[in-house]
Every structure is written in structure tokens, then in C-alpha cells.
Specification:
Layout: H1 2-8, E1 14-19, H2 24-40, E2 45-50, H3 61-64, E3 72-77, E4 80-86, H4 91-102
Length: about 110
């Protein structure tokens, strides 16, 4: 879980998908995230966390981000939570919602 913490504070956006193996919607979202990764490539890091197997208290996700159900997605950019969603979105809907953070450019 320390690796996740390091990624969250990096330059690239990190989408964390909290799931369980026995969750039907989670399986559907897994396919959507594979499609998203194929389209976006290195523009985003996608991490899947099985909340039944991982001890989330290591990084306080369970209390800090109130993961109450699955699937739940959290999007971080430079250490900040910039978007969250519980449930399933199809790839185009998901991309519409997160693209401002994934394709954001800094105009100096």
C-alpha cells in the first residue's frame, strides 16, 4: 500500500478502483477500466484494490475516503482527491468525467 501512496503523490493521475471478487458490477467495471487504459495509455495509472484482501487501514482509505460499497473509484492528481464515484460507468461516460484531470495541461 505504500506504493499506492507514492503513486498518488506523483505527477500522473491515479484512478483507484475498490472492488470485491463477488461483486457483479465490479466485474463489469473491470472490463471498462481495461478499455479506458487501452485508450488513455500512460495518461493515467489504474490501480485495483480488493477490499476483502487488502488492509486499507494502512493508508487510512477506509476512514479517510469512506469506502462504503463497491465498486468505488477515487481519482487523485498530485496527491489530491479530485473525483470519486460509486457504481459503474461505461467507458465513454467515465472518460468524459475524468478527462479534465487526465488531459489537463499547464499553461505557463
Amino acid at each position: 500500500m505504500e506504493e499506492i501512496r507514492n503513486l498518488i503523490y506523483g505527477d500522473r493521475p491515479v484512478l483507484i478502483d475498490f472492488y470485491t471478487d463477488d461483486c457483479g458490477p465490479c466485474k463489469l467495471l473491470n472490463q471498462v477500466l481495461d478499455e479506458l487504459k487501452a485508450e488513455v495509455g500512460d495518461g493515467i495509472e489504474i490501480i485495483r484494490v480488493d477490499i476483502d484482501k487488502e488492509k486499507l487501514t494502512t493508508i487510512n482509505f477506509d476512514s479517510t475516503y469512506q469506502i462504503m460499497g463497491t465498486p468505488t473509484m477515487l481519482l487523485f492528481k498530485e496527491g489530491k482527491l479530485v473525483w470519486r464515484y460509486s457504481g459503474v460507468l461505461f467507458k465513454d461516460d467515465l472518460l468524459d468525467r475524468i478527462s479534465p484531470f487526465v488531459y489537463e495541461t499547464n499553461n505557463v
